[in-house]
């Protein structure tokens, strides 16, 4: 039997790959395996948001992804007769996370870049054509039975196992946990096209939700010449009759002819709204589609899974490194399940708008939305629909903005303007407003940050960002984004987690004195002078 590894990740899709990369870059010995022998060559996800792009940046992959992404376009909702009844646009700059609010992307090259990056991490082992046959949980590890492509079995021992193995998750089955249905099950035909230049000239420049009771349809502007159509199946229609090339071209005839482009993929899916009842069983956890499935109407499916990975990665690191007790892992479900549930419910509301088949109700919907949004409709920002965290590894007694995402400014360095994470990394960080804390911060919080491999950032005037001690940086902003954020919330300081969520805040100097105790309690931190006993 092989020696024990820190984490076994089941599934090498985007969520499993990003989780493995985050763990590996933190020095966590990780084995990730997948039953396929190569990545899926066709597109599935088509977009992600700025929060995901910041994770990609933290993995050092923003340049590698640049050729495969494009800004997310505005979105129009068109009612009966094609009238615009709602419009969403990206929030304007300066961008809160340092990136445009959303991106379109091609999934196969995106995953190729992820896998190349994982191959360069010494403490991450990738096993393809490997199937999970069994899981047996012990007090101090999990034993996995694996079957390789040659038909040989192997036993792998890991301190923790994370199932990132999709909607039909084998790990979830071994956990014996069910799925809660949020009451949305609608069949849709998804068509991906690679469109020629003449065809592109015929097509809308925006993403369009055709809220047409005769055939609800979504049109998506992908990156490059990639375009997607999603057609709702009407009552009585079957997947077999829709997955037919002649039928596909009849549906696309409103926009294109066969001479205008190449059919890349067509498949019928049932859009679900499902959330796993339990996300953790001892040392086994779920992430991505294994833990939840959401309708695509907010473009949040893959985003939700990558949020899982970012949330879980730092918590596993803290536990494995002996900084926190395993109780910290209970906060994973506490934080992510309500967040996923709320986002999925919002996607359902948008889906119900689009999917209305009754012409009378559709006309009433159009009038109601125009009354609410104006005619023409006022612009809304989709990013405002994403909720904050409400409980978990948060010092929530401080109140808002605890649980919100902390902004990433562009800072001035000797090499020019750079995004903050590229300069100081993505550890725990205490950010202090320049005019609010005149004396040294309390030794207790300084010591706790040091034990968490964190840093102190002091906003400052000056010519350049620089390190001013083992723990501290003097940060010179280029755009004043963080200073404004702190002032808008009435704060002198904010403590931010590695996944960029605000963990604790200080409104006055005295609040800093109690911050260490709050962190120890809510993050389940341990006395570093005492060796952990749970392994």
Written overview of the protein:
About 30% of the residues lie in helices and about 30% in strands. The protein is an alpha/beta fold and about 525 residues long. Among the domains are: about 5-70 and about 105-180 and about 280-335, FAD/NAD(P)-binding domain, CATH 3.50.50; about 395-520, Glutaredoxin (3-Layer(aba) Sandwich). Helix 1 (about 15-25) runs parallel beside helix 4 (about 105-120), helix 1 runs parallel beside helix 9 and helix 13 runs parallel beside helix 16. The longest helix is centred in the middle third of the chain and has 26 residues, at about 330-355. It is globular. The protein starts with a strand and ends in a 13-residue tail after the last helix.
CATH topology assignment of the domain at 5-69 and 104-178 and 278-337? FAD/NAD(P)-binding domain
Give me the Rg, rounded.
Answer: 24 Å
Quote the distance from N terminus to C terminus. 18 Å
- Contiguous uncertain segments of 5+ residues: 530-535
Write down the overall mean pLDDT: 93
The top-level CATH class of the domain at 5-69 and 104-178 and 278-337 is Alpha Beta
Number of distinct beta strands: 28
Class from secondary-structure proportions: alpha/beta
Spell out the CATH superfamily of the domain at 5-69 and 104-178 and 278-337: FAD/NAD(P)-binding domain
Spatial arrangement of strands, main beta sheet: 19-16-12-15-14-13-5-6-20
Helix content: 25-40%
**What percent of residues are in strands?**
25-35%
CATH architecture of the domain at 5-69 and 104-178 and 278-337: 3-Layer(bba) Sandwich
Number of helical elements = 16
Q: What profile does the largest beta sheet have?
A: 9 strands, mixed
